[in-house]
UniProtKB/TrEMBL annotation:
This is PaaI family thioesterase. InterPro entries: HotDog_dom_sf, PAAI_dom, Thioestr_dom. Transmembrane segments: none annotated. The keyword Secreted does not apply. GO terms for cellular component: cytosol. GO terms for molecular function: 1,4-dihydroxy-2-naphthoyl-CoA thioesterase activity. Residues 52-127 form the Thioesterase domain. Pfam families: 4HBT (PF03061). Keywords: Hydrolase.
Length: 159
């Protein structure tokens, strides 16, 4: 993976999110065209211990995070962009024992809202586990909110 400013910004954002650290999420690819995160399979995210199937909440977290961080891939400067709306359509359960990848892209950027879409998959992006669409509110680069998270992302530190 070749380093780029977009990749570095995505990695800083992800490293500032404690729940993503606990889940072990990693940036797989990042560019202005989109973002792919990896959610490693672990027993902590299993929803059904009898089958080993990953809990839907872990997939939701992956996709919300992927869509949210994809916003920093298209904006010229960092902005806090909280989730306004997220819809996930589950196609089939994830296979036990395999990592899950989430891809998202921003397909429309307005002065107030960023619209995203993407999918979760394991081995083949053409066989998605789930599809997602989301809307994220632009707070503006001058917003003083976000506190420690915003400072950590801008300065390159973790939470």
């Amino acid at each position: 993976m070749i380093s780029s400013p977009v990749l570095e910004r995505a990695q800083r954002f992800l490293s500032a999110l404690r729940h993503c650290q606990v889940l072990g999420m990693q940036v797989h690819e990042a560019s202005a065209e989109g973002l792919t995160l990896r959610l490693p399979y672990s027993l902590h995210i299993v929803g059904n211990p009898d089958t080993g199937v990953i809990h839907g909440g872990a997939i939701t977290t992956l996709m919300d995070t992927t869509c949210g961080i994809s916003t920093v891939c298209v904006l010229p400067e960092f902005e806090i962009c909280p989730t306004l709306d997220l819809r996930i359509d589950y196609m089939h359960p994830a296979e036990p024992g395999k990592d899950v990848f989430g891809f998202a892209e921003c397909y429309r950027v307005t002065p107030n809202i960023i619209f995203t879409r993407g999918y979760a998959y394991q081995d083949d992006p053409e066989q998605p586990i789930a599809h997602v669409v989301g809307a994220f509110m632009r707070m503006g680069k001058s917003v003083q909110g976000g506190g420690e998270l915003k400072r950590n992302i801008q300065q390159g530190g973790g939470a």
